[in-house]
């Protein structure tokens, strides 16, 4: 028996790592496995539409999830150089370190500066997957730790008080060798410090939670709803329950029906809410209701009204969404509705709780949600539940002070004021003032943040009245010697219970009466820690909001009756398994639109296996009934007509508010800027931008020109305009953002938002400009052909939608874009870009600039006619020219380069730095330097053109260049500074290679430096013939004794 008890105790002490099986799979991959994109090719089966059992259901998602985890890790390797790296200050085996499996280590992280961590992450977080390395890696070969070529670790613990203290589970033992130690000398002693890094790769939190949900364990979870979605069963989303109808059990109370109608919803919205409210009390069967909300149909309003009524019915409901943004949106709308009906001080908000990662949610930017966010609520309540300074202690102190102030004075004056004499009146005044302030804060906090299940309305009302009484009470009321108070404190409770009120109706006695009643009414402990306060708030709230992933925290909380999933069509079905199995859940409501974007999947293999498919979409495929919201309130009818016909079979009606004449806005005078236009740009050129993404710089210029015209109109008319620019390609989004810059950020009335299609889902603006990018003779449009992506892009605008594209490219295939162009022509909404003179000029400038740029792209070393100097163009300079796309500015740049190549180096503007700066115009600067290249048997001076960039970015570039030039030898630096002049012109110099000593190693100037992302140029440029002869009578402006560096 003793041994059995010891085994049980040891199991309790063992650290539990959820999803350990998934972690073990990740740890089993070698580096070659990670880099092999086809590692699971042929091993991942397509997820079926129906399932014979819950076991088969869960099993079908396992391999696709492993492959998606593998793809995420592979993706992190591609950006390894930019990955945050955290230096280990100390590392030691943890108490539960037990080789070969339980390789736990306790690590103290060194505080790192922002430039070391290379990104927004300042600390490691729970379930971060890291690589343990000897140095901060810049390439995959650097992923070494001692003798191990690849060592992973999972962060399985973070100290709440000191987040620099973490616990990790390593894939292999971490061996501490001399190579891992850094030696430093201090005085006479020698100190060895650790040189290990934790390099952030991915966070596995969500995938671990999904994995755990897919493996419920032998005892099983709540599978009531899971078992209802395995087969094709129309009853899941069907009508009302027959037994409930026969017994009249599912009839919504009339007062709730009146409340619903007071929100002026349309009939489809009201019907959807009533069907959900009817189902929530059904105990005969488990149901899943589907609410289909196409763009602009008031889906969020419908959801918030549904939740408000569930709150009034005191139905414990969890509302989930796939993203933090979606959760914040629906929670914000609900809080706004609830706040309009609150009686005083926010009482009732305690029944609503929002929880999740504070940083990722960016809660500090959402003041409207402070009062319902769990972490803030717990911090506020914690001050109220302290044994000595909490609300109950202060209530008792106030009762004592009001009952017998002289007794309190004599008891406290010696103890608290160390014999220093205060008059009785001074003491009472100060004590009363402090207690009144403390109680006002604590009472306000309690009735704002405590759930109504723990604090009744009557008690909250007494707290509010007590605050009012204490505010008007004077010191004379406190020190007055009334017999009704003195010596009768012990009878206050008794008298109150018998008569309901003390005989004396004075403010002082009224206050005493309520304070005693409040004390007796609240049964909570005097002291509650933060962890218990979190449990208390989560267990007693009626409406809970979080992401589907974060709902895993509720498995140990009080049962939940109803689950609502917003944006359900964007949630992977395997991820919805997390909230669907929560204890107590009987019914679920899925709200979404499968015609819009699904969940994001990184792996092509997992995508083909349908890992990104939602439960909502699968149920629709199986024929489950949807409650359609059939009236849209966002788009002008000219905008809504095409997506309505193409994607929704003309099932959506335009609301009266968008059909009235006043809804039509004319922002610009030209005909092409009506409510709906396709603007044909046949001159565009698609090219690769960042990574493998495409961009079209001609469309970038057109977008910038249109936005500029809109800004001018907004300023002159002093009317607000919100503009959204959408492109399916990230490189195009980046190029437009760079082109527009921050010039419109200071205007309150004019806003511009440039995002990808995925980033705009759920958003809307007055005007939307779509840049389609594709412009080629093949008719290739890539993933632009995705109908869900197209639907999202076409349904974001309120008043105007202007689509930029190449007609020939978009119609040269059988995608939805051919129908769109044909529709625009049929409706007289098709326009050529040349119809607007300003756009025609803009295109002419940008195409000229492209022609000039294409001439330079294959030339790193160029010569101008009759030039003295050779000009070397860096990759970064060529990239920056692409972003300018303005022929006038490009001409100025090339004109200045020609001037430099002719020897006009502006000698009088020399600086201590090797590089120089020249302003091209008010907003752009050119950075250049004299550098050295090897040409046959000589080192030759050339002009290196580093960058042309906004003046605001010059300081950053200069710092990078300073670091670059630190690698040069003294001799090379002097040669870069060496200036020979002939009259007013500077001429290049050269030195024979053999004159250099062996130690004079001159680095290849074409090599990059990471800060400016200049690609490595491996080939040394070939010499070019001189085009002009320079007289050999030179005046040496500066003489350097190269052979004797000491001089």
From TrEMBL:
- A Pfam family cross-referenced in the UniProt record is DUF6469
Keyword ATP-binding included in the entry's annotation: yes
Q: Which GO molecular-function terms appear in the entry?
A: ATP binding; helicase activity; hydrolase activity
Identify the residues that the record assigns to the DUF6469 domain, covering every copy: 91-215
Q: Which SUPFAM superfamilies match?
A: P-loop containing nucleoside triphosphate hydrolases
* The DNA2/NAM7 helicase-like C-terminal domain, residue ranges: 611-807
A GO CC term attached to the entry: chromosome
Question: In what residue span(s) does the DNA2/NAM7 helicase helicase domain sit?
Answer: 264-604
Which keywords does this Swiss-Prot/TrEMBL entry list?
ATP-binding, Helicase, Hydrolase, Nucleotide-binding
What name is this protein filed under? Helicase ATP-binding domain-containing protein
State the organism of origin. Eutrema salsugineum
